Amino acid sequence: MKVMITGAAGQLGQALLRSVPEAINGDTVELIACSRAGGSGGVALDLADAAACQVLVDQLKPDWVINAGAYTAVDKAESEPELAQAVNAGSPEAFAEALQRSGGRLLQVSTDFVFDGSQGAPYRPDQPVAPLGVYGASKAAGEAAAARALDPDRLCILRTSWVYGPVGKNFLLTMLRLMRERDQLGVVADQVGCPTATPGLAQACWGVLEQRASGVHHWSDAGAASWYDFAMAIAELAQAAGLLAKQPLIQPITTADYPTPAQRPSYSLLACGPTRVALQQPAVHWRVALQQVIADVLA
Ligand SMILES: NC(=O)c1ccc[n+]([C@@H]2O[C@H](COP(=O)([O-])OP(=O)(O)OC[C@H]3O[C@@H](n4cnc5c(N)ncnc54)[C@H](OP(=O)(O)O)[C@@H]3O)[C@@H](O)[C@H]2O)c1
Known about the structure:
The protein is of the alpha/beta class. It has helices spanning about 10-20, 50-60, 80-100, 135-150, 170-180, 200-210, 225-240, 275-280, 285-299; strands spanning about 1-5, 25, 25-30, 30-35, 45, 65, 105-110, 155-160, 165, 185-190, 190-195, 195, 215-220, 225, 250-255. It is built from 9 helices and 15 strands. The strands form 5 sheets. It has a 7-stranded parallel beta sheet, sandwiched between helices. Strands 2-3 form a two-stranded antiparallel sheet. α2 runs parallel beside α3 and α5 (about 170-180) packs across α7.
């Protein structure tokens, strides 16, 4: 089975590369890792170049494309809407069109930021999207474009939230740096979602391929947290693991206290129950997953 992964240098891409199964349903996995720069045996691919995305799929005819690459700079996207749209909407559309011709399947990774967060209850996959910012809108456009181009039984959209892992640019690693540098910091306490560790998310992606899942699915770790809760847990678990000499004073602040170019949903919990059943993967509480990732940072 030929599996093409985009965003191979990103957080999820790295976790996928570290966890490639030898075979899926008895079929040996042949991996094609694509990143902006290529290198290390990978293929260079600019996701903003729709023609290049199509040509690669036309040439290689993968059984699956896992589109884990994305323009993920939520705030910067507000001033670069064309680029965010080209990458986040253009690449899934291009992959879907080419896969429609070749007979392959697409796993499009998407985000809780397609919702506006106003309902105050976990979002189900079938609920209408209403993104607040350019990033969320571009990801929602990518979902819709892929759905227009590819047969429904060959498209799986997997939305996830608050992704972090032992490598890359993420809240955990930023907090660890700030906690070492400062005696006190303020963290937003009025946005609620669920942190999702990359190792479990990668397993969910492989589960999609194993189960040949299609349709829209939601995947995060279990539980709920504000960014403040997440920061408090990072401080406690990192100190216990010996990653932090001392815990700084962490103060809860409001979104209004920390203005950002992009508006974010205040409540973006994803209802993941049906996906856990479909993928046959149990829920792991985000705090348990965090402890494991902190151990990975140490390793
Ligand atoms: N991070 C989150 O909190 C979060 C939350 C919900 C959903 N998601 C979704 O989960 C997926 C994985 O996210 P992640 O956290 O792993 O993101 P990430 O660490 O930012 O990785 C994204 C990768 O995409 C690559 N990329 C961006 N523009 C590109 C281009 N024009 N051509 C080629 N490569 C390009 C980046 O390469 P460069 O490093 O060279 O820019 C990066 O390696 C994405 O679909 C994202 O939308 C993420």
